[in-house]
Amino acid sequence: MKARKILAGSAALLAGALVLSGCSSSGSGDGGDGGDVTMTFWHNSTTGPGKQYWADTAKAFEDANPGVTIKIQSIQNEDMDGKLQTALNSGDAPDIFMARGGGKLAAVVAAGQAMDITDKLTDDTKNALGDAALSSLSVDGKIYGVPTSILPGGIYYSKDLFKQAGITDTPKTMADLDDAVTKLKDAGIDPIALGAKDAWPAAHWYYFFALRECSQDVIAKAASDPNFDDECWLRAGEDLQKFSKTDPFNKGFLTTSAQQGAGSSAGLVANHKAAMELMGAWDPGVIASLTPDKKPLPDLGWFPFPATAQGEGDPSAMMGGVDGFTCWVNAPEQCADFLNFIAEKKNQEGYADAFVTLPASQEAQGVVTDPALKDVLASYNDAAYVSVWLDTLLGQNVGNALNVAVVDMLAGKGTPQGIVDGVTNALKKG
User: Fold this and answer.
1) Where is the signal peptide (predicted)?
2) CB 151 within 8 A of CB 318
């Protein structure tokens, strides 16, 4: 992967989305005298090949490290942040847990809850992952996690439904997307699936309008000196409000979940009930788990978020994040060994296959064969820069306020100015 401009935050460099029975520090052995060690591991894959991958990978690590036991608990993705924060605050956290970078990781580090693994990663791990991926889980120049996948966002779509509606090319501009929405509605097809019940999928639309409206400097400043003073943040809300008035989303989108069941937004795409979904690079795997045969959707395609008619953002810029894992500050030393283990080429390839996603390891990216993901990877490699998701960048409290404000506007209970005000008020509260 060629080098790219990566936005830097006040505490973390930002590039380009897992859980155990019992968050028990008392279950961890000291690991220093050759005694048996038990580590707890939280992840967010609750079904299918992804859940099996982690079971198999943990078993392989145990086999290679006699005396080490890894206890796994899988937690629904939408519940992860809240449960993890509770566990960390209680001082009884899992030894290995999910990390997504940005303000969320910076807050964990500032609270002294994550292990500095800068000197615990092997040269092989560092070389395979590269500076860009590792910087996404770094704070003040120190590494606090190992990424497993890169997850830039964009629009997934059904080629068959596009053809049925007479759409011959993927939208390049918002005018093109408006035209595609009209054609799909005329053909009796819901244009866009949206799981607004979970808030963050709806907020993704605002994030991408902001990425097109705001300059790179403004996006970067939001990491180091967060505020929504620039007019571009308001324009992004106005863009989304205007687009939403074309009724592009599925009926009942405000009560639709993102990833749980055939009626979720991913499920609507998986079962050809809607033509598009704006989502990160984990989406093909989620969609595959929700098709009737539990296999990848054969006609799934992808295109970047369209360019707007105005705005100061580079139209090739992308937004997304990484999925990765970090060690609790009091985890045994074998935790870092496990992070090195999951970064190995064969394990990164296995991860990409199981989750139908893009591996963080540059060495493993040859395993990507899914056409949609190959298109994502090509755009990622050519992007002018990649910003982390806005809610991750801003941290959990401010990010949640942003997401809720976006949903309120889409529900007719808020305004574009309300989004700006919601973020401003959350920042004042700290």
Assistant:
1) 1-28
2) no
> Where does residue 16 rank: exposed (0-12), middle (13-18), buried (19+ CB within 10 A)?
buried
State the pLDDT at residue 224. 75
Could you read off the pLDDT of 37-62 as tens digits, one per residue?
999 999 998 888 999 999 999 999 99
Whole-angstrom Cα distance, residue 366 to residue 281?
16
| Residue 162 parent element (H or E) | helix 159-164
Task: Give the C-alpha separation, 37 to 31, whole Å.
Answer: 6
Measured distance CA(59)–CA(52) in Å, rounded: 11
Domains recognised in the chain with CATH numbers: 5-151+321-387 (3.40.190.10), 154-314+395-429 (3.40.190.10)
- Is 210 a residue whose pLDDT tops 60? yes
d(CA 430, CA 86): 18
Predicted TM-score of the model (pTM) = 0.80
| Nearest alpha carbon to residue 117 among 361, 395, 329, 345 | 329
For residue 43, give both structure tokens.
């992840």
β-bridge mates for residue 142, sequence order: 139
Q: Annotate 183-243 with DSSP letters as a single string.
A: HHHHTT-EEE---GGGSHHHHHHHHHHHHHHS-HHHHHHHHHS----SHHHHHHHHHHHHH
Residue 390's pLDDT band (boundaries 50, 70, 90)? Answer: very high
Angle between helices 200-213 and 231-244 (to 10 degrees): 120
